[in-house]
Amino acid sequence: MEENRVLEMRGIYKSFPGVKALQNVDFSLNKGEIHALMGENGAGKSTLIKVLTGVYTKDKGTITLDGQGEVAIHSPQDAQKYGISTVYQEITLCPNLTVAENMFIGRGEGKITNWKKMNEDADKILQSLEIPARANQQLSNCSIAVQQMVAIARAVDMDCKVLILDEPTSSLDEQEVEKLFGFMRDLKARGVGIIFVTHFLDQVYEVCDKITVLRDGKLVGEYEIKDLPRVQLVAKMLGKEMDDLSDIKGEGGAYEGADADERVFEASGLQSNAGIKPFDFHIKKGEVNGFTGLLGSGRSECVRAIYGADRIIGGTVKMHGKEVKISNPLDAMKNGIAYLPENRRGDGIIGDLSVKENIILALQVLTGFFKPFSKAQVNAFADEYIKKLNIKTASAETPIKQLSGGNQQKVILARWLLMHPEYLILDEPTRGIDVGTKVDIQKLVLELAKDGMSVTFISSETDEMLRTCSRLVVMRDRKVVGELSGEDLTQNKIMSTIAGDK
Amino acid sequence: MSKTANKDESFFKKLVGNQLFIPILAILLLAVINLINDPGFFKITLGTNNAGNPVLSGYLITILDYGSELGILAIGMTLVTAASGGQDISVGATIAIAGSAMLRVLCGGTSRPTELAAPIIVAFLVACVVGMICGAFNGMLVAVFKIQPMIATLILFTAGRSIAAWINNNELPIVPDPKFAYFGSFIPGIPIPTTVFIVAACIVVIALVLKFTNLGLYTQAVGINEGASRLNGINPTFIKFLSFVILGLCVAVAALIKVSRLSTINYSVIAKDIEMDAILAVALGGNALSGGKFNMWASILGAYVIQFLTTTLYKFNVQSDALAAYKAIVVIVLVVFSAPTVRDYMKQLAKKVAPAKKEVA
Question: What ipTM does the predicted assembly reach?
Answer without folding.
Answer: 0.84
